[in-house]
Specification:
Elements lengths: L1 H17 L4 E6 L6 E9 L5 E8 L24 E9 L2 E8 L6 E9 L2 E7 L6 E9 L1
Antiparallel strand pairs: 1-2, 1-8, 2-3, 3-4, 4-5, 5-6, 6-7, 7-8
Pfam families: DUF2147 (PF09917)
InterPro entries: DUF2147 (IPR019223)
Keywords: Signal
């Protein structure tokens, strides 16, 4: 009986954590395959999800986001909030934006979780016109 109860609780909590994106994630460059940074995704009091760079794994071309067009212009890349305003939609997270600190461009964003990986897609207009990266969970 104890084993059945434990298995039920374990299954319940694994299902709850499966669709969550909060935590630290290693970003992998979709062009080079290299790990670039660690991004921490968190939920703010507005109920939306945000993400900021908490560690750089390779030296950026520029220490500041010189090409950013909004309030992030010339802000340090380390600590930069690159994900803004994502909302949970079933098992996916969308409705927000992601900014590429390398070129300063901001894209619409959708994120889905697949076990210990995040599928992050940034796009303009329609999701077909964009690029995807797979980020891995950092413990």
């Amino acid at each position: 009986m104890k084993k059945l109860l434990f298995a039920t609780f374990a299954l319940f909590f694994s299902v709850l954590s499966y669709a969550q994106i909060e935590g630290k994630w290693k970003t992998i460059d979709d062009e080079t395959g290299q790990a670039k940074s660690i991004v921490e995704i968190f939920k703010k009091t507005d109920g939306k999800y945000y993400g900021k760079i908490v560690q750089l794994l390779i030296k950026p071309e520029n220490n500041n986001c010189v090409n950013c067009k909004d309030d992030r212009k010339n802000k340090p890349v380390l600590g930069l909030e690159i994900i803004r305003g994502l909302s949970k939609d079933g098992n996916d997270f969308d409705g927000g934006t992601i900014t590429d600190p390398k070129n300063g461009k901001t894209y619409k964003c959708t994120i889905s979780r697949d076990g210990e990986k995040l599928n992050v897609r940034g796009y303009i207009g329609f999701s077909v016109f964009g690029r995807s990266q797979t980020w891995t969970k950092v413990n």
